[in-house]
Amino acid sequence: MSSPVREGAKQMVRLLERMPDERIKHLVSFKQTQMDRFKRVAGLPTSSGESDTGTASVKKPTVNEIKDILNRTNGPLGMKKDMLEKLQAAIPRDQFTDESLRGQVQSMENLLSNKYKNYYDVGDKLYHPAGNPGYYQRIMNELSGQKRESFFTAMRTVFFGK
Amino acid sequence: MSLLNRSYPLLRNNMANVRLSAPSRCLMNTVNRLYTKEADSAEKTVFPLAHSKYESKQYKLPKWKESLGEFVIGTFRMDMDKIRAGPIAGSYYYSICKEQGLQYENEPLSESAKFFYEQLNLPRTFSEWFQITLLHEWMLFVRMRAMPFKYGRNYQQKLVDKTFTDIELRLFEEMNVKSGSIVDRYLKDFNTQMKGAIFAYDEGFFSDDATLATAVWRNLFGGRKNIDISDLEAVVKYIRSQLYVMSRMSDREFALGKFKFVPANESVKRLSAEEEKILKEQVIKKYENLEKSGVLLPSEKSNLSYTN
Exposed (0-12), middle (13-18) or buried (19+): which is B266, by Cβ within 10 Å? Predict the structure, then answer.
């Protein structure tokens, strides 16, 4: 891995650290998966404790090893050849170049700086919609746990829609 | 056949439109084959719109029926804004949502589909099509919430109803699912996906671009690990620009179905304060003149504001 790519990946990791945390727990976290992904490229230790570069005692098989196994063996798991090819095509391949990484860093910066929210400002018309002015605020309150829905407010929504 | 005609006239209409481009599609089942035959006898290349003659473009309502309709609407002072939700949100707005990501195997992609499947590298699957449709519907929802509650809600309801009738039929006809219970299971699954996606997009829309990008990544990109961040940025920009265009429209224009999505390969330039003022004045003038002139039929009247 060339060093500009590694530098780019490090920059990306720094940017990702600035990402806001998700307000509720989802099955997969964007921040976490991408951090792991770019840390691996940057050669930093990932959360699962493995590093691509060092001679660390990584016991998990790498993607390449799995690919190799699939290639060497004739139809492991009793899978057919075309199925194997499909599987291989589905294996993620990250091919970073200096340029592509720079583009991604730029995009990440744009996202973090709220570029589009500010540029395409929709104003109170959509943020506090006339038909249901408190709609978004209620969602945010619920998410942040500031003001939870009570049984009464929930029933009101069920019957009156807002 | 007749049952289908009755229950899904609008849908049929849409699907017929889709088939226009390639009559040789092999997804046809019995119903569709019947369909083709009739089409061939009517016109060589163009499928008739729905079998309901009222859906056809050539069809003209007899004058006496038209007058009777206008008379009834006028006399009973029927609320056209409410009635219009069906043809505008249920039919027109749904059609522009669903055609964005529509694709068939062995067929060239449309311009909007190229953006999603080629530029963003999304998988060409049915559920991806649903996610794309959903994203567009959500954008419309955001605008509909800004309409007076009673009407906005009705528009949303019609759009959702139509989506699920369409998906149901597509699963049977295009995906060739034979079992009704499997289709039901899919529909429930899609319903859950819809709730989750709308919630996530709402959160992202209101908070910031990074959160919106995360919501897009989780839903549209299916939480794929090796994703190009610039793709996410492109989608966020696309969403925000569409919402911007919608926010500059008055309720009246939006409710009459004057909105269409800006193609992904074009970008939206923000209006200056002056341009915005001019645009607003033009709209107000147009609708004021229309109201004053008295040429509006009872069915064309609306109480929605054109000044906001």
Answer: exposed
